[in-house]
Each structure stands twice: as C-alpha cells, then as structure tokens.
Amino acid sequence: MPTIETNGIQLHYELRGEGEPLLLIMGITAPGSVWEPHVADWQAHFQCIIADNRGVGFSDKPAGPYSSEEMADDYAGLLDHLGIQRVAVVGCSMGSIIAQQLAIRHPDKVKSLVLMCPWARCDAYAKGVFEAMVQAKARYTPEEFSLHIQLLIFSKSHWDKPEALKSLEEGRIADGLNPYPQPLHGLVGQAAACINHQAVAELSTIGCPTLVIGGKADIFTPVWMAQEVADGIAGSELFLYDDLGHAFHFENTPDFNPRVRQWLIDNG
After folding, report:
1. Nearest to 251 by CA among 90, 116, 114, 140
2. pTM, whole model, 2 decimals?
C-alpha cells in the first residue's frame, strides 16, 4: 500500500479497479480494508481509492484532537497527489462527516456524494456515545471493545440470526488477534472530530448530487441525523432500510452494493 505526505501526515492508500475514480472514506476505529465487501463489487466499475484515516491503520496517528475539516484536507491532498480533479465520494459514519467537509471546503473536487449513516451535528446523547466508546477502549480487552462496537452498530434483526451470531463472534476473535490495533490516542483524536463536527449551516452549500442512506433501527446515529443532513442538502435523496442498523451495508450487502453502484453510475 503506497504512502504519501498530505496535510502534515503520512497517509496510506490503495487503488483498486479501473474506471471513474471513487473515493471511499471509512468510519471511526476502522481502517480502509473494512471496505472490502463493497470494493469486491465496485472495483469492476470504478477505480476505488481506499485509505486509512489519520489515527488508524498504517496512516500516521498524531496526538489529537482531530477535526472533520482537517481530515477532509488530508483527502484533498491525496486527490492532488493522484492528479484527480473531481471524484465521487462515499463516506461511512465518520467518513460521512469527512465527505461533507470535503464537499464544503473543496467543492470543485467532489462530483457526487453518498453519505452513509451521517450526521451534521452531535446532540448530548451522541456525544455521550462517543465518550463512552473512548472509555471502553481504555478499559476493555480488544475482544470486549469489539463487542461494544458490535452492539452499537448491528441491529436486533441481525443479532437474531444464528448465522450472524457466528460471524460476529469470529469478528471479535479477529479483532483480538489484530497485530496493528488502533491506539487509544488515535481513537481519542477521531472521537473529537466526530463530536465537534458542526456543518448544519454549511450543508446548503453542497451542490453535487447526494444520496443519504441509513438504517431505521440505527441506535448509534439515529434517523433524525440522516434526515437533518438530507433536509440540509437541496435535491438530495434519502433512503432508509427497514429494521437495519448502523452497519446496514454489512447486514444487507447484496442490496447495498448494487444500489449504490447504480446510483453512482446514474449520477456520474
């Protein structure tokens, strides 16, 4: 995986596939490799650009706090390095706030936006969720912390499936064996970016085609957050899966992959 210097850090990235460029920005705690179930489909249609956010994976992990604006500028530098003038962007959770800021701060670089389980501001409950995440990271074993995250992002309907339970257990075991875990200070920095993101007033400046997509059973970033983002971006589309949670894209990958792929093609 190549590394470039951007915005004062070393950022690791990977290119997969050929075609129109598609920038994928993952959420809090997660490296870019988490996109794999989606890249496996999308790389046949796009050149997927996958990076590790600052604070995780093989990218630099400076002391925080980080900001969504700062992290958007990380990606603007990556696009400049790659010589890409305009790009479609898919951002998941924390990646969605980075994508918002990329479109706000660098509008000429963004051709279209898919904002997965997004928010434009945190209320007191959301701030508490992120603060509890940091406290759990500080106190739990890696497997225990993995369970904490799973309980936040997967819906009851997913936990009720026996085959899903096995997959969740395997995921916790894998996280416990991860040789490159996210350090606590990396999570602290990312959590600060999530808590302090405030873009309600600036959403109206986003003029590119935008799809806001989420799950109606999301307890991590509830429906009101997605609705507020969609309401703030003129002409945006909103789609919410019934009974699915924050990880709707993993819970129903067979629908999510082609749905987003076709939307990106139609809005290319």
Report:
1. 116
2. 0.97
